[in-house]
Amino acid sequence: MQYRIGILGGSFDPIHLAHVEAARIARKTLDLDFVYLVPAGNPYHRDEVLASTEQRLAMCELAAQGHDWLQVSKVDTDRIGNTYTIDTIRELAQEFTLNHPNDSAEWFLILGADAYQDFPQWKQPEEIARSVSMVVVSRPGESSQELDHFPCRFIDVPGWEISSTQVRLSAGNNESISELVAPSVNEYITTNKLYIN
Length: 197
Ligand code: ATP
Ligand code: MG
Hints:
This protein is an alpha/beta fold. Helix content is 37%, strand content 18%.
């Protein structure tokens, strides 16, 4: 069998509704068998109260519950040092070959429009573009312009202004985040008093 597999990487600090919606729409549009959520090992925000790697993973697991097509991968959180997507792709492909010796896979890298605009500055972008098909999900206020040398398929979704930054700010101000994250993630944030100074 040939699998069609999506990869959505990010800090997921925390995972919010637009992340899951981006994965869902990409899966539907591209007929993917499943999508890996890959929390980054070493996110680099500054001057902010942040969740630990274990907490970010736990929230991704909660958000993925009930979606059998959404799987949380620890390839990046298990690796020491900075997260580079070229390593993520290589490790996921190796893992796939080990687990499915008789199958093949076509890989789709799902990016928000902001991440795609930064893509030429990533480590080995040409190599990444050769290994996967890039799928770009629109994001309010971000360009939907295709970059030279890095073809992609754009998926236009109704503008959803959710960001993890906004979730952290709202939670820190004791404002409701029920419109921004899944109920289980909301409960986890409240119980663990995340993002509160
Ligand atoms: P932060 O505000 O901390 O940067 P974020 O909301 O941008 O968080 P990330 O973990 O940085 O979330 O993003 C992971 C991936 O999801 C990136 O490719 C990003 O572009 C994409 N993404 C995040 N939010 C949206 C959104 N509202 N619409 C489309 N794509 C999104
Ligand atoms: Mg971001």
